[in-house]
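P2X purinoceptor structure dump, as promised
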Amino acid sequence: MRNSSLNLFMVFIYCFLQSFSFRWVFLWEKGYQETDAVVSSVTTKVKGVTLTNTSLLGARIWDVADYVIPPQGENTVFVMTNAILTLNQSQGRCPELPDDQTKCEVDNNCVPGYVSTHSSGIQTGKCVPYNSSIKTCEVFAWCPVEDDYHIPKPAFLREAENFTLLVKNNIWYRKFNFSKRNILPTINSTYLKNCIYDAQTDPFCPIFRLGKIVEAAGQDFQEMAVEGGVMALQINWDCNLDRAASHCVPKYSFRRLDNKDSAHTVSPGYNFRFAKYYKNSDGTDSRTLVKAYGIRFDIMVFGKAGKFDVIPTMINIGSGLALFGVATVLCDIFVLYCMKKKYYYREKKYKYVEDYELGADET
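structure tokens r here:
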């Protein structure tokens, strides 16, 4: 009775291991398929117009040529949402912004030729009035120097959340000579002009509203627009090419890439500077300096395709057969060392004999 129970138990363990390995290798991991990584290209197009009315600029229209910088990037697009503008700069001498290093009382407090990493220009050695109550060292620089101590709140281009982003993605699996794009064959021009991506109603629309991208990542667009940030638009192309090509479709997801929490408060967001130059009537050069804050959208494409192939199938079948030996070893270990009646089973498995030397007469 005990022997039959032991045999049934070992058969159960044996079958369980074989079933598990078969399901894992062939059904879950699809070990019968040859696989290939995706090769991808991405192009983007942003659309949207907004109006601002400020004391500095008055009423002004902003379109794509104003807020998308640069016009094209490699798998990325930057949309300016906030800005600090310094108008009519020209090269000359002017007071530096006041701080612990630039405030002065007399000329001896300023060092001719001195420049630091935070300087707006090169000191001339003179101490000049910055305003009615403060003196700072004079610098040779683009004047007037930029004052970026106060970031506009709310964001300068807060209506940018209603702008749209068209993502055109072409993918190719080289091993299988399979290519496709995210504008699916079922999408016509009429639908493309009117659709906006929605995970429930329009999961294959390639046009995204910027505010919805940020919201889908669990962030607040108006808060993020003030100091900028980096967002990821992820496109997943996991395809089973043993099925029809129509089943190979993109899946979109969104997340914020830069840290935004209470533990990371130093230099938050994303910003950079650029200038627009022009020549005055007297032949001198002037510029408008822009410190641009905004959201950079990184389009990340990843995926894997699989298709039946004899070679990986045979390799994995051979690996499965090798587990027969492993199953026997595991059953022995469990029965001989883990069960309550391990001593009884050990007696049945091993036969002990006495070791003695044969006598000379018996030889």
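The mean pLDDT is 85.
lmk if u need the other ones
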